[in-house]
Q: What sequence folds into this?
């Protein structure tokens, strides 16, 4: 999962966001513990296609300690800075810090827990820096169980004095407004814990939306095009939400597959 020249690393993640802004009332919902997810950004080597990398990832041998599930996220519509350097992200879902540390220690002692995420540089070049984040999922959603789907993400800066829990309550309110209109897509609030970039101090989050299928993404987007305001009646905890992006998320491994 890494290229040769700059030896950039790969990121698997699963997932990401459509959250807009406004104000009014606070949507009451407690934030659950987040799943620990390791991500790595990668660029395809010349002549290599995304479909080839997906097929390679799905064909890799599994181990009992392999992180599961794993997703490759192809950048479809993204900011110029990302697309200049990378084509996709890899996300490994470890669940808890206990699981992540156990996997890391198993790898250190010679167990090939991350073996499937290591590739000679003939397919891709990945960032030298990966990241660890917690993914807080809004409950009661349609989930994503297919081979691939579309997802959106948005980076949101919190107002002074506001917390990640405030961002989660806002996203839960957005999810409730979509649900009332007939859409129950998976939504996540993502907070950086370890690694580079802006939100590791807790002053920003990424909000992700992962409909069950590409068709469900189209239907969700049509709701807002036709007048749905998913932030209506919500207390907006953000100063601004930037960098709206769309990805195609490929399921590489899931539990027991």
A:
């Amino acid at each position: 999962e890494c290229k040769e020249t700059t030896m950039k690393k790969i990121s698997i993640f699963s997932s990401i966001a459509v959250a807009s802004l406004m104000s009014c009332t606070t949507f009451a919902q407690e934030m659950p513990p987040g799943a620990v997810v390791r991500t790595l950004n990668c660029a395809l080597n010349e002549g290599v296609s995304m479909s080839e990398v997906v097929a390679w990832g799905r064909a890799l041998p599994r181990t009992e300690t392999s992180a599961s599930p794993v997703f490759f996220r192809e950048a479809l519509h993204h900011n110029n800075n990302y697309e200049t350097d990378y084509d996709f992200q890899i996300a490994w879902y470890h669940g808890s810090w206990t699981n992540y540390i156990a996997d890391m220690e198993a790898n250190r002692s010679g167990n090939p827990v991350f073996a499937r995420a290591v590739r000679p540089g003939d397919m891709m070049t990945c960032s030298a820096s990966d990241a660890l984040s917690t993914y807080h999922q809004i409950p009661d959603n349609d989930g994503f169980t297919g081979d691939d789907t579309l997802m959106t993400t948005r980076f949101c800066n919190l107002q002074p004095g506001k917390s990640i829990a405030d961002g989660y309550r806002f996203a839960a309110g957005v999810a409730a407004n979509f649900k009332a209109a007939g859409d129950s897509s998976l939504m996540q609030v993502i907070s950086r814990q370890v690694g580079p970039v802006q939100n590791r101090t807790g002053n920003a989050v990424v909000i992700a939306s992962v409909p069950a299928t590409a068709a469900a993404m189209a239907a969700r987007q049509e709701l807002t095009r036709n007048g749905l305001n998913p932030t209506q009646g919500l207390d907006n905890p953000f100063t601004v939400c930037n960098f709206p992006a769309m990805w195609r998320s490929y399921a590489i491994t899931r539990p027991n597959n």
Q: What stands out?
A: Helices lie at 50-59, 80-85, 97-108, 164-180, 214-225. The first strand starts at residue 35 and ends at 44. The chain has a mean pLDDT of 82.
